[in-house]
């Protein structure tokens, strides 16, 4: 049977705020090495026998980030299913299973979150190979991680055995335990961590899901039947997908089926669920400090300092996490790393943009960085990729001045079209239809100065857009 990797890219990663945000979550960050966690997830599949092109399930809002990261690593054959809203892992996997069976095949699905670290790729490959026969015969497998301590941030699995290289029937799943109970689990030697990675035939997963939650399967079938192809994406129907219950695969299937099995995996796994987890896998100096970016530490021990846009300094700190971005700084005791989710909830309740958006925002044509703003004005640095084009649009409440810093800009300004090069500028009056493109071979950099009574991103009327945005 073919083996299809199903990569789930829809998480929000609020525990890694302020670096991870809803508009640019942790799976797209470069936290360990030069590649993002999504890129590493896909690259570690290389070498697995009988591997078919990957199927990615991602949010509508992050589709162009995913496409760009695939392009960066030369992966051109992956397919992408777009969720119009988050509905948790059970519906995401169900739509992938239905899509994988569209030509009458019944492949084995290797379901992988896009935000895990696995240091020992060979051990991971071996576990997949050993578990594959059981999956082909109808078992629904999860990879159980050999525990390294009484971790309270993971769920646990108790199986009939823990021998390496053996598939064992699962006796029970246990939710994230308190510390005392986690210590008992570790002392017993009977438990594995629940990794959230799965291996099963597409048809077997759908059969079990239909037994326990038929509404999920019905909604996903409807959403896929009414889906529309858009560039390299398959857009699931909004209303049909919204009808699916919001439920995780563990609750929907794995904890209820009589066919759940596991194989122990000891491969340097980490789900990077908090800044403490980032610290665990990071390189450290002689004082057990980890620094990334322009960082200077003096008399510090056991600290993680992550700088992104400026010099970050620390003196006399112990067991501390410091994360700096262009618009927010987090300082916390490392033992409180699981509580950033609560902090982000407060920011959301206060309707703070910092909860969901970075100052630099990525678009299919490039990005923009809001470098300054005040009453009735905003200044942005805009980068347009070679060959890319912004939508033909108009604003009701603002005018814009564009100054080219480098590259060549092709301008549509009302009924005029012209080129601008370095140090040249133009003015777009309020209410005038306009567009911007980069016809060159190098990135186009320009400064945009907006002025007007309202400067929100929702003041855009699009007349033409090559990326399918409304």
What's this, in brief?
The chain is of the alpha/beta class and 470 residues long. 23% of the residues lie in helices and 33% in strands. A hairpin with a 4-residue loop joins β18 and β19.
Write out the strand line-up for the largest beta sheet, numbering strands in chain order.
20-21-22-29-24-27
Total of DSSP H or I helical runs spanning 4+ residues = 11
Distance, first to last CA: 41 Å
Portion in helices: 10-25%
- Rough outline: globular
Query: What fraction of the residues are assigned to beta strands by DSSP?
Result: 25-35%
Largest sheet: 6 strands, antiparallel
- Structural class of the secondary structure composition? alpha/beta
Instruction: Give the overall average pLDDT.
Output: 92
Any low-confidence stretches, pLDDT <50, length ≥5?
none
Task: Record keyword descriptors for this entry.
globular, 470 residues, 11 helices, six-stranded antiparallel β-sheet, alpha/beta, five-stranded mixed barrel
Layout of helices and strands:
Layout: E1 3-8, H1 37-43, E2 55-59, H2 63-72, E3 79-83, H3 89-100, E4 108-113, E5 117-118, H4 121-136, E6 140-145, E7 156-159, E8 167-174, H5 179-188, E9 191-201, H6 202-212, H7 214-225, E10 228-230, E11 233-235, H8 238-242, H9 249-254, E12 260-265, E13 269-270, H10 275-281, E14 290-292, E15 295-298, E16 304-306, E17 312-315, E18 320-324, E19 329-333, H11 340-349, E20 360-363, E21 366-374, E22 377-384, E23 392-394, E24 398-406, E25 409-413, E26 416-420, E27 425-428, E28 434-437, E29 444-452, E30 461-464
Parallel strand pairs: 1-2, 1-4, 2-3, 3-11, 6-12, 14-16, 15-17, 16-18
Antiparallel strand pairs: 4-9, 5-13, 6-9, 7-8, 7-9, 8-12, 10-11, 18-19, 20-21, 21-22, 22-29, 23-30, 24-27, 24-29, 25-26, 25-28
Helix pairs in contact: 3-6, 3-7, 6-7
